[in-house]
Amino acid sequence: MATTERIFLHQGPISDRKISELLQQDLCSDVIGGQALFLGRVRADILEGKSVIGIEYSAYAEMVEAEFEKILDHFLVLYPDLQQITMLHAVGMVPVGQTALLVIVSGGHRKEAFKALPAIVDEIKSKVPVWKKEILGDGSALWGANKE
Questions:
Q1: d(Cα 85, Cα 124) in Å, to the nearest integer?
Q2: Which parts of the chain register pLDDT below 70?
Q3: Which residues contact 39 (CB under 8 A, 6 or more apart)?
Q4: pLDDT digits (tens, 9 = 90+) for 104-122
Q5: Among the residues of 79-139, which ranges form H helices?
Q6: Which of 65, 71, 69 has its CA nearest to residue 129?
Q7: Alpha helix stretches (DSSP H) within 4-109
Q8: At what angle do helices 110-127 and 61-78 cross, to 10 degrees?
Q9: Is the Cβ–Cβ distance between 76 and 85 less than 8 Å?
Q10: How far apart are CA 131 and CA 64, in angstroms?
Q11: Which 8-state DSSP code applies to residue 147?
Q12: CA distance 15 to 105
């Protein structure tokens, strides 16, 4: 039976320690044969001639949780071999180089996990209502949109 991490929002950058902790939770399972991992990190883009130094993410928690639940339900039915889907999105300030989105897909077999991962990430980017304000090196900010 599939299980899922039910905490979807994380205050600040998602640390390497948190990532490791979430990866470890499946190691004791004797039905997990493969895991696929996506780390979405803040880039040092240049916007309007200025460097991005971080992104401030904001979200309406109840709406975010409802969308993540829909994504879980959809992909656990679409890919029955999946045993666990862990999704975590940062809120608050995330500096350049730090992790803002974590998705771990654990399945009985690697092929299903590999196949499901990009579709899940695309669904998160298109459906989950998380807003981002890109903070620029001169102290100004621009509201950003998800770009594929």
A1: 12
A2: 1-6, 26-28, 145-148
A3: 19, 99, 101, 102
A4: 999 999 999 999 999 999 9
A5: 110-127
A6: 65
A7: 16-24, 61-78
A8: 150
A9: yes
A10: 11
A11: -
A12: 18
